[in-house]
Every structure is written in C-alpha cells, then in structure tokens.
Amino acid sequence: MTSSPATGAVLSPAEMSERTGVSIDTLRYYERERLLQNVARAESGHRRYSEDDVLWVEVLRCLRETGMTIEQLRHYCELGAQGDHTEPERYRMLMTHRALVEDQIAERTQALQLIDHKLGFYAAAAATETPS
Amino acid sequence: MTSSPATGAVLSPAEMSERTGVSIDTLRYYERERLLQNVARAESGHRRYSEDDVLWVEVLRCLRETGMTIEQLRHYCELGAQGDHTEPERYRMLMTHRALVEDQIAERTQALQLIDHKLGFYAAAAATETPS
DNA sequence: GAACAACCTGGAGCGCACTTCAGGTCAAGG
DNA sequence: CCTTGACCTGAAGTGCGCTCCAGGTTGTTC
After folding, report:
1. Distance in angstroms (rounded) separating the CA atoms of residues B30 and B21
2. Tens digit of pLDDT for each residue in A19-29?
3. Across A52-57, average pLDDT
4. Residue B12, pLDDT score
5. B87 to chain A: nearest residue by CA?
6. B94 interaction partners in chain A (CB closer than 8 Å)
7. Pairing mode, if any, of strands A40-41 and A47-50?
C-alpha cells in the first residue's frame, strides 16, 4: 500500500501549460524562483507535473494576479517547506494579503462609480447634441 | 465677465503632488506622455496647476490603478483634445474599461474565497495541534 | 537512420511605468 | 551679492515579471 506516491495523472510541460494557462517559460521561471518545488522528472530529464502541482500553480496565479510579488510568494513557499511550525506566519501573510485584496475591491468599486459618472456625462451630451 | 479664465487656486508642483498623491516626477512624466495637457506656467517657467488639473489627475490615477495603460490613456486624452465628435469613441473606451474593472472585482472576489479557504485550513490545523 | 517536435539549461532581453540624474535657471532671505 | 531650495530640461537608469534565445538532448515517426 503506497501512502501517496504522487497523484495519478502526470503532465508534460505542454499539458501543464494548457491546464493552468501559465506559459511553459513562466512555469520554469517559477521553479527557478522556488515558487514551485520538487517537480518530478521523467528519466529523460523532462518535467512531469502532478495534479497537486496544478492546484498549487492555481494558488500562485490567484495570489500573483491580486498583487502578491514573486518575492513574497517565495517567502510563503519557503515557510511551507520549513514545516508546520511556520503556520502562524503563513496565516499572517495570508491575512495581510486578504486585507490588500479587499482594498483593491473597494478601490475598484469606487472606480466603477467614477467611470459610471463619466459615462453618464457622455450619455447626457449625446442626448443634448441631437435633441430629437 | 470672464468666461472661465482658469480656476481660482493655482498650485505649485509640490502642492500638486501633495494634493493628488502623485509624485512631481510622475506629474512631469504624465505631461511628457501627453496625459496632462496645457499645464499653465508662471513667468519663471514654473508649472502652475489648476483645480481642474487636480480633478483630471485624479481621474488618471483611477484609470491607471485599475489597469488602463499609459498608451490607452494617451489615446483617450487625444480623443478629448480632438473635440466633441470623438465622444462616442471615448464612451466605448470607458465601457470597455468598465467591463475590465468588473472582471477584476470578480477575480478578486474569487481570490478572497480561496484565501479564506486556506485561512480556514490553517485555523483548523492550529485547533488540532493544540487540542485543548 | 534522418528528420522533427518537444524538452532541457543558463543567460540575455524586453516592456512598462516610473524614477533618478546632470547640469542649469529663478526668486526670496540674510 | 550670495546662498538656498524649488523648479526646469533631456536623457539615462531601475525594478519587476516575465519572455526569448542559443545550443544541446530525447524520443517518436517515417
């Protein structure tokens, strides 16, 4: 009985890129930056990504797209690699980032209002310049 | 009776930076990139920003912070300078950007869910490792 | 066994939005 | 007058997050 010898499906770089929407070059870049650790290799030396890797890359993208820097992500990964005793700090990191994301939502909600205001202005102008 | 000979208050670069939260260098950069046009000058050649400039810079920041590029902003400005007949296109630009901002909000709302999920995981782990 | 695609590595290059620099001008205070 | 600080210009530099390149290996297909 194997404990968890890597999740069933195993993906080539091209498949991984397809699945995650992240380019092959970026996947390698993340690995160089240690955001993606212990990626399996075929005997040929070619990478074989697991389903767990897919999930993790999705987390990475989620955090990146909301503004977490590569350096912060690396720190978060390194904490994870250091073991369970770093959980409190990882928790704090996520809480901090959570607040940032909420700020972004608030900022964008305000932006929508400003945009709608300007859109309303254009609509009014259009109505005025062709009165009938 | 003057029609609108520039808004009352007039601000030095330092004051403008203070008011808008945009650095003096960035203000000059925006002007070079033609995002900010017809900035008044004192006889000395020093810039004098109007209240209208303040409002416009606030719009610029709002659009920039939500991901509109400098190039797009320049295009938007150029349309404005070209006269009223470009309003339909400016309207379309804003509508397009509006959709983008809504996507960002949706994306970030999803991100919050993922973050909360992970936060929940850490909370559960903390509860388990110290059962009492 | 030859060609071709997919992969490997280390390192250089790129695009964007600023930011800094060098070298000078202007205006007020002592 | 002389200094000091805020301002001016054109141009070069920076930091980030990728993205691309050169030169080489692997492995499938005809």
Report:
1. 14
2. 999 999 999 99
3. 97
4. 96
5. A122
6. 115, 118-119, 122
7. antiparallel
Q: Do A102 and B112 make contact, defined as CB atoms within 8 angstroms?
A: yes
How would CATH label the architecture of B10-129?
Orthogonal Bundle (1.10)
Residues B73 and B37: beta-carbon distance below 8 Å: no
Indicate yes or no: strand D within 7 A of the C-beta of A32.
Answer: no
A104:B108 CB<8 A: yes
pLDDT of residue B128: 73
Tens-digit pLDDT profile for residues A80-104: 999 999 999 999 999 999 999 999 9
